[in-house]
UniProtKB/TrEMBL annotation:
Alphabetized SUPFAM superfamilies for the sequence: Dimeric alpha+beta barrel
Domain YCII-related: start-end pairs: 1-85
Listed transmembrane segments: none
Protein name: YCII-related domain-containing protein
UniProt record similarity statement: Belongs to the YciI family.
A Pfam cross-reference name: YCII
Classification lineage: Bacteria, Pseudomonadati, Pseudomonadota, Alphaproteobacteria, Rhodobacterales
Family matches, as Gene3D superfamilies: Dimeric alpha+beta barrel
Length: 89
């Protein structure tokens, strides 16, 4: 099941993002469930994340989101988990 995780950073949290980026990328690599991922942008500034998870169900997506180093660091002001269907690409 594909799940789109859409997270918005708290205002002024760029340093939190930068401080936890290596741990976040390592988590993506070690969990092996991320199909696509990248930051949301405002110009050149990173303001959130879009992660496409390939997991068994919504509860697995929630568990992944809860254990993301960015989430544990308190980076996000909001996180949405939305079932997603790949059509192109």
């Amino acid at each position: 099941m594909l799940i789109a995780l859409i997270a918005r950073d708290k205002d002024g949290a760029l340093q939190t993002r930068l401080d936890n980026r290596a741990a976040h990328l390592a988590y993506i690599e070690e969990t092996g469930v991320v199909a696509q991922a990248g930051p949301l942008l405002d110009g050149d500034a990173m303001i959130g994340s879009l992660v496409i998870l390939d997991v068994e169900d919504l509860s697995a997506a929630q568990a992944w989101a809860d254990n993301d180093p960015y989430a544990k660091a308190g980076l996000f002001k909001s996180v949405e988990l939305i079932p997603w269907k790949k059509v192109i690409g």
